[in-house]
Specification:
single chain, 54 residues, mainly alpha, 2 helices, elongated
């Protein structure tokens, strides 16, 4: 379960980086906020899964 939690955390970070890309280069605030919030949720889900496994 720890590996699954870490995987979720990595995916969440990648989503936040993609949100940064959309905010800077594409100038799409809607996509930026959607990706940033979903990345944060996925990252927190990974923290939750990782914490439960320990």
């Amino acid at each position: 379960m720890v590996i699954l939690g870490r995987l979720f955390q990595i995916v969440g970070m990648l989503l936040c980086l993609e949100a940064l890309y959309f905010g800077i280069f594409q100038e799409s605030m809607g996509k930026e906020m959607m990706l940033f919030i979903s990345g944060g949720v996925v990252f927190l889900l990974g923290r939750f899964v990782e914490g439960r496994a320990s």
